[in-house]
Design a protein that fits this description.
7 strands, alpha/beta, seven-stranded mixed beta sheet, 6 helices
């Protein structure tokens, strides 16, 4: 049951942190699960390309690289363009609609959700909450893999306590974007 997620964008958006928290939460939820977390970023940590790959499997993972993505979270147009070709034909793309425009047609039945993730984070007072908003969305999309309560626990223990209230709000906001008609599906 190999399952692969890539969170990608540019440095400073928290994609590396979001991937790490996703991996930590998955391990917490199910200690028997095999998890690989691979961060990648350019020498320019702010503004350069950045991504996190998280692979989950119930069997030992023999090859630690992403073969096909089940979920792609794209927070920049360059990130989307670079990774869209390895999304499984039954996979899902979550794109920041304010930063990733003119989405291409996909082969297969790739489901695409376009949401204003960066704007939602800015509505909380700072764009630094975009990674936590993304995690909130993923907590609703990956119900079988990610426990929202375990995710909240991991987020609150990961960041300094002074950010707890805003991080809780960011998780809730991200989760509500799936339930509410804020998300629009594109084909």
């Amino acid at each position: 049951m190999r399952f692969s997620v890539r969170i990608t964008g540019f440095g400073g958006q928290g994609v590396v942190t979001a991937g790490r928290i996703l991996a930590l939460t998955a391990m917490q939820r199910n200690p028997q699960l095999y998890v690989i977390y691979t961060p990648s970023y350019g020498f320019a940590t702010r503004g350069g390309n950045a991504m996190s790959d998280v692979i989950l499997d119930d069997k030992p993972i023999n090859y630690p690289k992403v073969i096909k993505l089940d979920v792609l979270v794209a927070l920049s147009k360059a990130a989307y363009t670079t990774s869209i070709d390895i999304v499984d034909e039954k996979g899902m793309v979550l794109a920041d609609g304010s930063l990733v425009t003119n989405l291409t047609e996909h082969k297969g039945s790739i489901k695409t959700l376009s949401m204003e993730l960066a704007k939602a984070a800015e509505g909380l007072g700072s764009s630094m909450y975009i990674s936590t908003v993304v995690l909130g969305v993923l907590s609703r999309l990956l119900v079988g893999y990610l426990d929202p309560l375990a995710l909240e626990e991991t987020v609150l223990s990961y960041f300094p306590k002074r950010y707890n209230e805003q991080n809780k709000k960011a998780l809730e906001l991200g989760g509500s974007m799936i339930v509410a008609p804020v998300a629009k599906s594109q084909k």
